[in-house]
């Protein structure tokens, strides 16, 4: 997705690649190597993103992160 928001980090939840930006989050699923994939905006329009790649953690198949607006 093209916007001025910088990519902060990525994580994996199950078989989905989650791309964190400062003010948005995207879920990528499918086969990236064959161009058969979809990109879905998560919580579109909410301005929820991630503070730092260091705050992204996968535990038990769930993905945790520190949101940009804070707790």
Give me the count of strands: 6
| Secondary structure: helix percent | under 10%
Beta-strand content bin: over 45%
Helix vs. strand class:
mainly beta
How does the overall form come out from the CA principal axes? globular
- Mean pLDDT equals 88
Sequence of secondary-structure elements: EEEEEE
Helical segment count: 0
Write a structural description:
This protein is mostly beta strands and 71 residues long. It has strands at 7-13, 16-21, 25-31, 36-42, 57-59, 62-64. The strands form two sheets. The protein has a four-stranded antiparallel sheet with strand order 1-2-3-4, with no helix packed on it. A two-stranded antiparallel ribbon has the order 5-6. Strand 1 and strand 2 form a beta hairpin. It is globular, with a radius of gyration of 12 Å. The termini are far apart. The relative contact order is 0.26.
Q: What's this model, at a glance?
A:
With 71 residues, this protein is an all-beta fold. The protein is built from no helices and six strands.
Brief descriptors of the model:
single chain; 71 residues; mainly beta; four-stranded antiparallel β-sheet; two-stranded antiparallel ribbon; 6 strands; globular
Topology:
Elements: E1 7-13, E2 16-21, E3 25-31, E4 36-42, E5 57-59, E6 62-64
């Amino acid at each position: 997705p093209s916007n001025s928001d910088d990519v902060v980090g990525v994580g994996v939840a199950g078989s989905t690649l989650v791309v964190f930006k400062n003010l948005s989050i995207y879920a990528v699923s499918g086969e990236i190597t064959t161009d058969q994939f979809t990109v879905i905006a998560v919580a579109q329009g909410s301005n929820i993103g991630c503070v730092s790649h260091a705050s992204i953690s996968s535990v038990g198949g769930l993905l945790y992160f520190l949101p940009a607006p804070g707790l």
